[in-house]
## 1
Amino acid sequence: MVSILDIIGPVMVGPSSSHTAGACRLGLLARNLVGGTPQKAHVELHGSFARTGEGHGTDKAIVGGFLGFRPDDDRLRTALEIAAGEGLAYTFSKTKLGEENEVHPNTVRITVERDGNTSVMLGSSLGAGRILVSEIDGYPVEVHANHDTIVLVAEDIRGSIARITTLLAEDGVNIATIRVSRRQRGGDAFMVIEVDEPPGDVVRDHIKELPWVRWAVTLDRLTS
Amino acid sequence: MYSSLAAAIQDAESRGLRLSAVALEAESRDNGRSVADIRQVLGRALAVMRQAVARGSAGDLRSASGLVGGDAAKLREGPAGPLSGTPFREVLMRALAVQEVNAAMGVIVAAPTAGGAGVLPAVLTGLADAQGLDDERLIDALATAGLIGAIIAERASLSGAEGGCQAETGAAAGMAAGAAVEMLGGTPSQCGHAVALAQQGTLGLVCDPLGGLVELPCVFRNATGSAIALAAIEMALAGIEFAIPADEVIDTMGQIGREMDVRYRETAGGGLAATPTGRRLARERLYQLKKH
């Protein structure tokens, strides 16, 4: 479902909503995955991102996202220079992530590393600044960042979903959507929960500390 | 949100409302935000649009490559043409102004995209200022434009990489035409005809930027896209009806986009980008960019 405010927006630094603003949002989400500015990042550009990214400032926008700059931040223009001062070492390469009709033309695979944690994300810029993250650390997901989103990996045990949803409800957080996937029965379960209000620090920490939760991250809502 | 313009028009007309009213109602219902809150966000977008028009018309901006900039000022101060002193020339000037700001990595509102960001501010503020309409009317118009854009996003595409320029400046022309017809007192049905009339005129339009930069022909496509929107507005308000419904024209745009060769979808592999001059300029300018 598309929102009017997605169409009349975002307010952004030019020149391209898919190659600049959307790319910046993908960088911001990757930053979220490791909880701050990564020390190392590798960016693999596919399709139109690879062919015309340079002219659109896609590199500046993604690195700006790593640094926590939003799409309307003037500093995107000079993000590559700022990255050096922030201790962020980045590399870019061009790649083919699949056939033209299978993979969205503006797709990127981002590997980020911070304090020994590494995360890999596959995401696409759909146009008009809208994005879709389709894979995190090998798990298929569907994150649009139109909601605050909780992503977690848990042991596949009975009652895990009920426990999480109860914790959120007790914190007054309403769930918009929830998706659960797993690689195999008894393997890790991957949950993507879109919520209407940002969950508080207490409930975030509580979820992370559950003994059967291996990894959890909260991705910020990225709309105007 | 509505998935067809026909449903929105029917809903509005059966209840004696304007399209902007049902659009704001649907947006509020979908996202749990008050109409006042949504209008406030649209008001901020309008302010950024006006700033971009003002910034770009000064004439001192150049894009990173130097390929575009300063042409809005020529329409403002340059030699007169047959349309000098009319809203038509003012709208063209504003479209170039916003797009020159965008190409210079300035702040704009991507509505629906950055590459097509000149059309809505040019057509809407240009016509509103010519008629002395206030910002509340413009905010309503932005809501209607957003509704039309949401339907295009759902049924077709708003990405040049997916659907060519018909999905960017073409979609923007459709959004601006429908929104302006409401702003100028047209009925919801007339808005629908305006969308169809504008979009039929941009079907098949390719996305062929030199060197992949959102500069050339993008800046000028915003001006010509605005001109198509003005034509559609004039025809729809005169009572002209387009026989193919807007939803089907939008679906056709999506279909053409899916069948469009990848060279014509923002890859700089075809069209003007692949002309001898286009290739030469891209080579020279991108080389210059890398030296910085």
Note: Chain A has a mean pLDDT of 89.
## 2
Amino acid sequence: MNRKALRIIIILIIIIIVLIMIASSIGAANLSISSTAKIIFSKVWGIRNFIDISSISPQDMKIVFDIRLPRILMAVMAGIALSGSGVIFQGIFRNPMADPYIIGVSSGAAFGATIAIMFAKGLKFFNLSLTSLFAFAGAILTTLLIYNISKIKGKISILTLLLSGVALSSLLTSVISFLMIYRTHDLSKVYFWIMGGLTNSSWLNLSIITPAVVLISVVIFFYTKDLNVLSLGEERANQLGMQTEKLKLTLLILASLIAAAAVSVSGIIGFVGLITPHIMRLFVGPDHKILYPSAALSGGIVLLFSDTIARIILAPREIPVGIITSIIGVPFFIYLLVRSKRQVF
Amino acid sequence: MEKNISLQAQALSFAYNKIPILKGIDFDIEKGSFLSIIGPNGAGKSTLVNIISKVLPSFEGDLKIEGKSIKRLSSSEVAKKIAVVPQYTDMGFNFTVSEIVLMGRYPHLKRFKGENRNDYDICSRAMHITRTEEFSSRKYNELSGGEKQRVIIAQTLAQDTPIIILDEPTSHLDINFQIEFMELFYDLNKNYGKTIIGIFHDINLALQYSEKIIMLKEGKIFADGKTADVITRSNIMAVFNSDVYVARNPFTGRLYVSPNFNLRINKEKNISKKEIKIHVIGGGGAASHILNILHNHGYILSAGVINNLDTDINTAQELGIIFINEAPFSPISKEAYSKNLELVKNADLVILPGIEFGNGNILNLEAVYEAVKMNKKIIVVDGINISIRDHIGGKAADIYEKIISSGAYLIKTDEDIIKAIPEVI
């Protein structure tokens, strides 16, 4: 990685830290940024001894540390997962319209979550909500199913993958709609989950998601030069010595895993995984070695920003963060469509 | 297994959806050779390239790269030995030129390591050779077709392989670019010892640079060997089903082929022409066009006297016409002259094309004058004044005037010949 890339990444990390401070101080109980910073740094190993928290009430400590911070960090993690996964899917499909949900992660997760919400109410598994587990399982199973449908003679056709993804997604969406009409009393819960939100974030969820997202993201980073070569087309990549089938499979699994992990705790948050890679491509270019880390970190920034707005715009009521990302995302998406039309025709 | 063989195919077969594409191919390609594989669409050329570059990993038979079976080599090991230059394509993502060239190092890189000094050095050399360094920071998609192709070649050279396969990289380029690219690979072959295997649609491009040719037809090798042995009129007729004229370019000494476009149509129409025997005086290529026209119209032809290495000799040979020849650049001997007169005597009509006359071939003009004396019908192509074509101070013009005044039929261009014949006979 060159110096320019390193600089961009450091800047993005600084923005994330600053945004975490600001977001932690915003809310019903208004706290100053300095006291929020003190609260956060007082928990960081190595510098906690230098922080004086005598002036801060235990109640404020609790609000920031137990209520706001898990949600804020979850927004960052989910954003990193979704946007990073978006870069991978766009790279594999060589299609700017691809996003983490393109091969069934979202519809599978929604289906799993719907089942859990309707038929396994309030049940827990080692303190984890069954909704999340079912959503994760639904996402992974659907992706595997779509992958196997599109595998012909050991090769996956990208086009069949897209088509069967679209087909199976609409089937699952219909089943979900049917279930929602069948059991109207769960309708709003299911609907709220599908819209996406980070209200259920906890340190426990975070302690599972964070290592998974960080680990997978690091592994993916070592495949970014392969993605560059793959964008030359599969035949050319083959000629340059790539085992394209193996690579596609590896990357599809890794990208689906982090997307599923994010979706299982946050619901279907649209457009972060689609627009953030595009924005960053405008800034850093198409080289995945730089694009991947910077788009992933920017995804964290975008989702944290959107979630903070979702928390305060109708306070004390909250709106699903999916609405905010879509309101920002749709106009951009349309802009992309128009622009690509102009390029093609 | 000999050491200097870079590629060897043994009973290589491949079927796609049970339809056989390659049906038992054997060949040896020597290290450092420049070889072309030609054949019509569907002959299996692209499939062969895909097998050699391990894009298609499963096939029957064996293919050895420098003595090792490709089946036992990994994709990246193959990519370190063989690079393919494809036709350029546009890219979904707008990489810069240097980013694209750097991707050529892919087979040499380890998973957890980035590019090192050596990789960058090889890339800048590749960009230097292909003259892409001047636009190295520009976006690939914004380049012209020729520039994009140069970038793809640079990427291939960055692979730093002993074998380079050209998969029709020039067929959509202007002729100046085609020549530039071929010169580049010729240089890589001659001065860097690279083995070059070219897949070409354009036979002439293949002939210009290749020492050897493999001719594919319907998944089999139809002919394999030195260029001159493989490229013959009958082989091309058998493989491409087209009638061509094969000759040597007088400037380069290289073979070239040229299609005989109107042949088939005219033959069918005019095959039943009454059997008129025509003798055409040859030399300096002036007779070729007329011979071809008359041949297409089904006339019985003879020609003479023509010096060896003259284009007219080629034409007569290709068309299967009887001709009298003479050693290259020598004056016509008495012997050839009298043989020529035999043919004149035998003909109903003698044609004198717009030949230039010197001391060496004045006997050809004499032969026409003899034909006048024999009361033969004479047609003279009189497009360019004889005074310009006479290089021996009026001696040729004198005989020429005598021929004209004795009632020879004059035409202005070669094409007029067909209309002229019925009027004369």
Note: The longest helix of chain B spans residues 175-192.
## 3
Amino acid sequence: MRHVISLLIENESGALSRVSGLFSARGYNIESLTVAPTEDASMSRMTIVTTGSDEIIEQITKQLNKLVEVVKVVDISEAAHIERELMLIKVRATGKDREEVKRTADIFRARIIDVTDASYVVELTGNQAKLDAFVGAIDPALILETVRSGVCGIGRGDRVLKL
Amino acid sequence: MVLTGAEIVIRCLQEEKVEYVFGYPGGAVLYLYDALFQQEEVRHVLVRHEQAAVHAADGFARSTDKVGVALVTSGPGATNAVTGIATAYCDSIPLVIISGQVPTAAIGQDAFQEVDTVGITRPCVKHNFLVRDVRDIASTIKKAFYLAKTGRPGPVLVDIPKDITIAKCDFEYPKEISMRSYNPVVRGHQGQIKKAVQLLLEAKRPMIYTGGGVVLADAAEQLTRLTRLLGYPVTNTLMGLGGYPASDRQFLGMPGMHGTYEANMSMHYCDVLLAVGARFDDRVIGNPAHFAEEPRKIIHIDIDPSSISKRVKVDVPIVGDVKEVLEEMIRQLEAGAARPHADHLGTWWKQIEEWRSRDCMAYRNSNEIIKPQFVVQKLWEVTGGNAIVTSDVGQHQMWAAQYYHFDQPRRWLNSGGLGTMGVGLPYAMGAQLAHPEAQVACITGEASIQMNIQELSTCKQFRLPIKICNLNNRYLGMVRQWQQIFHGARYSESYMDSLPDFARLAASYGHVGIRVDRPSDVEDAIREAFVKHKNDLVFLDFQVDQTENVYPMVQGGKGLTEMILSAEDL
């Protein structure tokens, strides 16, 4: 099962490696991991997408909680939540492809944020499936480069992850 | 008061009432050693290798309820310390390790004796710090001691660059520390405890299984009271020996790979299992799938939530300090009228006594050749069961655990989790310094002792009257045993050739060395060591049976009930 784990961690050097080291040392999967400071600069928020059985996910949350610098851990995928990921994709845009890429970007409500004679950089935000679908909709031969941020997640409504 | 970073470090150690620092100087810690030199409260024990510094601090901590402290230099000093740190981590021993680091400006420049100490030790410490500002030293060391000894204890490393030790600032030691990200649970959940007590009282075939957590929490007294109140059988793991008096009838011996028949059978066939400060590790329950075949309810008390339901699904988890939770269980039991069901318990004990009557610890003694078990038995007799016993890792470790009966906690020091050969002598050093009047014995083998034999020199310098009992079988005995059973008796690299004459080696360090060849000389030799040479380190080199194996044995991957009881079962 796929899970999205959000956590607050002290914004100190080495904190990220404690988390990533835990995953590699114990053989847990990381599909993606994002991290950046929160509105309180002394704390960072991390979103980890992982997969595993219920027992493994239980161990992952317990082991994360055990890290001294981790302030709070929540499996946000246990309830209603929102996931978003940002993708920047550079595609070849010449001849008839130029118009086709533009049209596809419009359909996905993506934005073209860099234009040259021969290429576009397209910016697209959404859940993982939407980003995957966009990549699938573009002729692979046109794709020059892609970069994805990894998933950010937040609980819906009253569910708040705060100190 | 304005002090240098180095002076602040030493002042912090004084504030923490540190009696001994085990260490080894070097370039990055010269200022620290200079500050150490100019005071008398904190005494320094100069070891001969940094690994032994950490082990000795670890032995000091295991034999007391204090935090052990080690001090090493940067680079190789720190890497040598890693085995010691990992050993302490696996057994949850509270340590503070201070390591020197190259000056801040040189970090990352591949400087002389530079390694990423914080990076290297990260997976084997409870936490670690790199101090980047002299103003952070005091609060960091305060945090280090707090983290080391609270919650599930463990080693904490503080890495201090050389320039930070010369920088100056005002010194004030924080009285208290609080960390928003670290709040270990102490008191167990009342509802869960109530549920546990209820379940225990309803049990038909109860069993109490306890580990190192009872020793670490100093809860032996509570465990003993609860066990006697209930009248239930109890087993202590390798790490938990001494948690319950081994000489008591309710004690079934150690469980697991080399545990007793009665302990393993009771673990397997009980209907309610109370696990206290133990973690169902692979050497204790064998194959978890086999263990799960027999239905039973499990209550698990542990300070670390991640230990609960890790390998075995638990029915009543209780997160909290073992001592507090046991106290509460006793209180509830005493307050209530309900008592265990005498008939069921009687039937269960009858079954257990039948298992016990197999006498699985019997071995065939000899008049010709010294049996290693016999040496441990004699050691137990001569020391009246009152010695602090350390061991290394291998067959001798198991024989020590099986045949030296520990009636009190913190008397048995060994590397259970990591299984580090070479801990025995430095553990004994730490224990002897902590308990100058105690009889301290190091049960070891000719292979393990050579992994830190240089410490004989430290023992001379600090006049440590340790008694080393070397069960010398000229083999890596446990490796040889596995090769015999699982590898067609192909003894690949397990024979120890070209051994030194240990008695003369000990003598060359200024100690007493005694070689013992005959069974009839064993007791006299031990007496000579403990009585005549009470104040000397004595190296007893027992030439023991080369072919003796440790039984009972549960082979890796097998279930607890699938035991080999003796050589005849092979």
Note: The interface with chain B takes residues 9-10, 13-14, 17-18, 21, 25, 55, 58-59, 62-63, 65-66, 68-71, 163 of chain A (CB under 8 Å).
